[in-house]
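User: Can you help me understand a structure? I only have the sequence.
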Amino acid sequence: MRVDILGITVDTYSMQETVDQIRQAVEGQIPMRVVTANPEMIFASERNARLKKLINSADIVTADGIGVVWAARRLGAQVMERVTGIDLVHGLFPIAHVGKWRIFFLGGKPGVAEQAANQVVLMNDGISWDAMHGYFSAKEEPKILEKIQNFQPDVLLVGLGAPRQEYWIAEHPGLATVSIGVGGSFDALAGIVVRAPKSIQDLHIEWLYRLWKEPWRWKRQAVLPQFVIKVLRQGFRRKTP
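Assistant: Let's start by predicting it. Here is the structure, written out as tokens:
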């Protein structure tokens, strides 16, 4: 099931259902592209037809953030929980360990992807991995593509930031069975960025914690009130005969 939020069709899968869908894709060697859609990305797609088409053509579009969960519920869909990039990969790693998956980490500053992968395999040593930072030029890109192709990953995690990572994945299909845009997840996996305490996550105000820790994010967060207004308008239009 999917729900239309400002023209973006978001899946109503729970975290476990999303993990199961990806597991089945890897085990069946079924190509899959996953977009973790947050309010900022959905809002931006209203003025970017290419981005909207790209997101809606993904195999899975998750509700990345409590704002998207709220919007879905407001529009009548039963979305039980958010499915963020960082939580999704944490859900996948134990399964990848058991299944001995091959995972490629692409993105972040030099050294961060490697650090993230090393931290992951401390607890999930059944995973085979390779990594490359995201600060590459167009001239360097062919070598990166060759590196990924030679590694033959089951899962390609791309942390180039949205929407660059979404464009990049769509422009380079076939590099892995499953490709997922994970934003800044590598910083969290590497321990460079510390996530909000579980109590704050449970209160659904992790965004506020991140804003406190990273004040420069206010420009991104500024779209949230506009997102809310547009969702309320969409709901009103649906109810108006």
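Now, to help you interpret it: The mean pLDDT is 92. The beta strands are 2-5, 8-11, 32-37, 60-63, 102-107, 128-132, 155-159, 178-181. Let me know which part you'd like to focus on.
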